[in-house]
Design a protein that fits this description.
Layout (H helix, E strand, L loop, with lengths): L14 H45 L7 H15 L8 H11 L5 E8 L5 E8 L2 H13 L3 E11 L5 E9 L3
Antiparallel strand pairs: 1-2, 2-4, 3-4
Length: 172
């Protein structure tokens, strides 16, 4: 039998495992804290945006449909009912506009004409020109659109950008 005196430290048995366990728990706590803080920051930013949008909407007077709006709808319907060459259904025109408007772009006015070829004019407003570029890109990619052109661009009060875009349509 071999007996002796052991003068060194006892051999660690679970020490490394416990240390790794504590390190993993600490790292997990740190990651959860960072995620929690980023979620709180994002929620605060969204709350501020909601408040600013609410203030903007309270300042803006609600707009009732005008006679011009009704006349655009009537011309769309007459062009379709008359069987005009290249007439596009009003629902297709409205679907085109709805599907191509990027976020934070407000449609101010829509005009429709059939001569010399079918087309629409969009008056939109937005905060930055990147949204206008995105709108034109989406319009060009739409199957009903043959060409787009920027007719007018101006700054409104409050820094918003107002733009008028001509969209030439091709029949189905």
């Amino acid at each position: 039998m071999k007996q002796g005196i052991h003068l060194g430290r006892p051999k660690p048995r679970l020490g490394r495992f416990v240390a790794l366990l504590f390190a993993a728990a600490g790292a997990g706590t740190l990651v959860m804290g960072v995620l929690y803080q980023s979620a709180r920051t994002e929620n605060a930013a969204l709350a501020n945006e909601v408040v600013s949008l609410q203030e903007f909407l309270e300042k803006t007077e609600p707009r009732l449909p005008s006679d011009e709006d009704r006349s655009v709808a009537a011309r769309l319907r007459l062009a379709l009912d008359a069987g005009a060459s290249g007439a596009i259904p009003p629902t297709a025109v409205l679907g085109l506009v709805e599907s191509t408007l990027p976020e934070n772009v407000v449609l101010e006015r829509l005009s429709y004409g059939t001569s010399p070829k079918p087309g629409i004019q969009l008056d939109v407003s937005t905060l930055d020109s990147e949204r206008v570029t995105e709108l034109q890109r989406r319009l060009q990619a739409a199957p009903l659109v043959s060409a787009t052109s920027l007719l007018e661009e101006r700054r409104l009060e409050g820094g918003r950008l107002a733009v008028r875009i001509q969209v030439d349509l091709e029949g189905p």
